[in-house]
């Protein structure tokens, strides 16, 4: 059953920040897939990318499958590239409601930290390329899309006001 809330969207769109706040507000556990990967491999995301992007992606897929299969009533924040492998989404959507956090690139460019984001080390301009490659994927995999254009509180309220019954049921009962 779909009891998890799974946040997807561009790098810097707010998935980790929103996921943590949402989990606090809903009283649900929180799992950030990147943090889970860093914890289980005992290596940072940049260190994993230093081996190769393919190395990181293989670990990411294992993490998605594991988290999707073991978590319930959990808020899960994905990395921006989770949509690149359909296996990841296939696994996550079995147990989760997929929410696309849609934030304008111009907003992301203004505040994204590139230090722990190896794909942006050549510059933030890469964001435009990723957006072009990934926008359709985010849209097609999402059960729900939320605009992150104004404030984080608006985003949190919109998600909370649209939760499917499979997620609200246990919380209330
Ligand atoms: N609506 C917003 N208003 C202000 N800052 C935002 C908003 N959405 C995201 N941010 C900021 O953008 C940055 C990137 O957010 P983060 O949660 O790390 O994104 P992601 O996990 O999607 O890469 C953070 O500094 C976060 O506070
Ligand atoms: O967009 C991407 O491909 C990536 C996004 C990152 O997560 P955030 O979306 O939290 O930045 C992280 O998974 C890795 O650096 C790759
Ligand atoms: Mg994140």
Protein described:
With 173 residues, the protein is of the alpha/beta class. It has one domain: Rossmann fold (3-Layer(aba) Sandwich). Helices cover 56% and strands 13% of the residues. The chain is built from nine helices and five strands, in the order βαβαααβαβααβαα. It has helices spanning 15-26, 33-41, 45-51, 53-70, 86-95, 105-111, 126-141, 152-161, 165-172, and strands at 4-8, 30-32, 75-77, 96-102, 144-147. It has a five-stranded parallel sheet, sandwiched between helices. α3 crosses α4 (53-70). The longest helix is centred in the middle third of the chain and has 18 residues, at 53-70. The protein is globular, with a radius of gyration of 15 Å. The model has no long low-confidence stretch (mean pLDDT 96). The protein binds adenosine-5'-diphosphate (ADP), shikimate-3-phosphate and magnesium ion. The site of shikimate-3-phosphate (S3P) has 12 residues, from α1. Pathway: Metabolic intermediate biosynthesis; chorismate biosynthesis; chorismate from D-erythrose 4-phosphate and phosphoenolpyruvate: step 5/7. This is Shikimate kinase. Its main location: cytoplasm.
């Amino acid at each position: 059953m779909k009891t998890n809330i799974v946040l997807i969207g561009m790098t810097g769109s707010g998935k980790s920040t929103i996921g943590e706040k949402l989990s606090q507000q809903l009283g649900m556990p929180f799992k950030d897939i990147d943090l889970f990967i860093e914890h289980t491999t005992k290596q940072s995301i940049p260190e994993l990318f230093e081996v190769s992007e393919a190395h990181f992606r293989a670990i990411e897929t294992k993490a998605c499958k594991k988290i999707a299969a073991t978590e319930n009533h959990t808020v899960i924040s994905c990395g921006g590239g989770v949509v690149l492998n359909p296996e990841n989404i296939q696994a996550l959507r079995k147990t989760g409601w997929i929410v696309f956090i849609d934030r304008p690139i111009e907003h992301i460019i203004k505040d994204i930290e590139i230090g722990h984001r190896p794909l942006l080390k050549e510059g933030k301009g890469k964001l435009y390329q990723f957006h072009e490659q990934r926008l359709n994927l985010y849209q097609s995999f999402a059960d729900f899309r939320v605009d992150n254009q104004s404030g984080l509180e608006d985003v949190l309220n919109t998600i909370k006001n649209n939760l499917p019954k499979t997620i609200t049921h246990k919380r209330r009962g």
